[in-house]
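Task card 7
Instruction: Convert sequence to structure tokens.
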Amino acid sequence: MTTGRPPAGPAGSRLPGAGTGHPRAGAHHRPPGGTGHPRTWPIRTADWHTGGEPFRIVPEPPPAVTGPGPTVAERRTLAMADAGTQWTRALLCGEPRGHADMYGAFVVPPDDAGAHLGALFWHKDGFSTACGHGTIALGAWAVAEGLVPAPPEGTTDVVIDVPSGRVTASVRTAGGRVADVTFVNVPGHVHARGVEVATSYGTLTVDIAYGGAMYAVLPVGRLGTGARVRPHDVTALIAAGREIRDALNAARAAEHPGDDRLSGVYGTVFTEEARAPVRRSDSTRLLHHRNVTVFADGQVDRSPCGSGTAARVALLADSGELRPGDELLHESVVGSLFRARIERTAVVDGRRTVVPAVTGTAYATGTGAFTVDPDDTLVPGFVLR
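Output:
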């Protein structure tokens, strides 16, 4: 963000972090040159969780990603190339300030005045193209902090530009508090069906779908190990998810048709049916599935995974298992729930796509002011699993 009057999003809302009077948090976020590196200004964060998955919001990110001009997709490229931005990500994500499964975002200017804010999502391995649980948390945060005005009772759209496109967090308030958030994603599609991948578990067949990022999806039973979607089996599923992802990416099995920056399998989604579909009184159906998503290099999503759920909606719609009016109750490995449905269908670049709507809850867990002592030799940190 630049100095002076901050840019405005819809309805004249101001970008988070602008005009706070604090020193620019990223001003001293350069890689240290030994043990005598300067102390940083406090890096201020707002910590939330969505369905158990952490989300660390940084309203004042490093200056390399806040200047005027680039789109959010271009800012992601800048972030990946900038040593100071990567250092800040590693500092906030890695131990001792974070952990191997930490997740967060830098709040950046949107592409234009049609959105309230932009977001660069990060994890221990870099910057992702999409994050549904993060979009839910950002919507709740923006309303709870008064950055986007909302009535005590009603629904308020928070429009967010992310690397995969423009998304909306529809925030429902009740009694003056955020009740839940419905995340309307970019169009998703089935990329490939029945892709065979050679693994130590034998040749597995997976489907690949796009929900803002590419996911390989398969029933957990195909592993043949007796593993289920449950905490007890998470360690084994991390190993399997990594192996599947790496083999598919080595074969370049997930090339995005329109933007190579969105190519590559980001995560592996292991699924199982929690119960048989229930037919409701209006003849629509309720599906109840469990999943665990292993993303990036072995991170485990504690939530049902927003962009992974979007990919699941695309697959289920394609097979006819999820129809307009039906609902998917998507359960995570820790028992948290998202509700997903088909918002609408569309044709994008000649391909049939599905725009999903995913509803979940997010809650604040605290605020932070992270610092670096000039004598600290373990900077920006480390990751152990």
